Amino acid sequence: MGHSPRPVVVFDDAVSSYDFGPTHPMAPVRVELTLELAGGLGVLDHFDRVGAASATDDELASIHSASYIERVQKLSAHPIHVDIEAGLGNDDNPVFAGMHEVSALIAGASVEAARRVWTGQAPRAANVAGGLHHAMPDRASGFCIYNDVALAIQWLLDNGAERVAYVDVDAHHGDGVQAMFWNDPRVLTISIHEGPQTLFPGTGFATETGGPDAPGSAVNIPLPPGTSDAGWFRAFHAVVPQILREFSPEIMVTQHGCDSHMDDPLTNLMLSVDGQRESYLALRGLAEELCGGKWVVTGGGGYAVSEVVPRAWTHLLGIVADHPIDPATPTPAEWQSFVQHRRGVVAPTRMGDGRTPSYRPWESGYDPASWLDRQINAARQATFPAFGIDPLY
C-alpha cells in the first residue's frame, strides 16, 4: 500500500534575512518563534519540510514590471540609495542589503507551495514567511517587496488553473493581490479586513468588485474598528461561504495575517487567538468541500511578535496538518525559555486566550443601526448579484 502524500511546509532559514531593521515592526524572528513552537508541540512531525528555489527574474516579471525588479536589484546591491517612486527607502520599506534575493526566495517558496498542491505531490502546503500581499506591480508597499501570493496564483493560472479563490484574513486589505487580478475572471479575491477609514492601505471598500471583464471577482468586507470574534464571524459567514460555493474554485490560496488580534500594535480589530484558529478551521472546511482539499496557505502581517504570531500560526499549521492543537494546551517550557532568550519577554503559557468564539448568524436579522451590519449588508449588496445570489436572504 502506498502512503498518501503528506502536507508540505516550505521553509528556508535564509528567509530570516527579510529584515527591515531592529526598530521595524515586521520582525523576522516571528517565523523562527513559530517553527520552534510548532516543532515543540509535534506539529511539524506531520509535514514534509522542503526548501525552495528563488523566483527567477522572468517569474517575477509575470506580475511585477521589469523596471521595478531592476530597481529592487539595484538598491539591494547599493542599499545607501532610496527610490521613492518605487516605494523603497521610506519608513515602511527601508532598503537593505540582499533584499532582492530574500524577497525572491519568499516568492519562490509560495510558488513551490502552489506547485506541490497543484501537481498532487501534496494535499496542502504552507509558507508562513509568505503572504506579502501589498506589493504592487511597480512598487513596494506596506512591508512587501515582491507579492509572493500573487506570484503563486499567477503560476497556477500559467499551469492550467481556471478558477483560483484567494481569501485574505489579514487585518489589512489585500490590495496588491486584488490589483493584480482585478480584471481576471479566473481569480476570485476575497478580503475581510479593518475598514479603509481607519487603517492602511485605505482601500477595500465593499464597492470594489472587480474590473470590466471580471465583475464580482473582487469581494471586500470592511469591518469597523473594535470588531471582535463574534462580529468577524458574523461577517465572514454572511458572505464568504456563499460566494465561494458559487465560484466553485479548483484550488484555494489563503493569506493568514494574524494582526487582527486584540494585542496587535498596528490594528484596531479585537480577535482572540481562539477566534483566529476558528477562521483557519472554517477555511479548511471550505477547501475540503469545494476543491478536494487543495489548499495553499501563507502567513502575512502580525506584529505582536512573541505574544500572538507563534501561537496563531502554530494553530494554522496544526489545522493544515489535520492535527489541530487544543487552545487549552500549555506552551512548552523550552519554547518559553527560547522566547525569553530571543526576545527578553515573558512568553504566553497557553495556546489560546480562553475565549470560545460564537456569533449570531446573519439569518437572525439585519440591524441597520449596527455599523458592522451595515458593512456586511453593503458587501452582500455589492457582490451577491454578480453570482446570482439574492443579497436579502
Written description of the protein model:
The chain is of the alpha/beta class and 393 residues long. It has 11 helices and 8 strands. The protein has helices at residues 29-40, 57-60, 66-77, 99-118, 148-158, 175-180, 229-247, 273-291, 309-320, 333-343, 371-383; strands at residues 8-10, 48-50, 124-127, 164-168, 187-194, 218-223, 251-255, 295-298. Strands 2-1-3-8-7-4-5-6 form an 8-stranded parallel beta sheet, with helices on both faces. Helix 1 packs across helix 9 and helix 1 packs antiparallel against helix 10.
Key features?
single chain; 393 residues; alpha/beta; Arginase, Chain A; 8-stranded parallel beta sheet; globular
**What characterizes the major β-sheet?**
8 strands, parallel
**How many strands appear in the DSSP assignment?**
8
How many helices in DSSP terms?
11
Query: Which residues form runs of ≥5 with pLDDT under 50?
Result: none
Number of domains: 1
State the secondary-structure class.
alpha/beta
Q: Approximately how much beta-strand content do the residues carry?
A: 5-15%
Under CATH, the topology can be stated as Arginase, Chain A
Give average pLDDT, whole number: 97
**Could you spell the SSE succession in H and E letters?**
EHEHHHEHEHEEHEHEHHH
Q: Give the neighbour order of strands across the main sheet.
A: 2-1-3-8-7-4-5-6
CATH architecture annotation name:
3-Layer(aba) Sandwich
Span of the ends, CA to CA = 48 Å
Characterize this entry briefly.
By secondary structure, the protein is an alpha/beta fold.
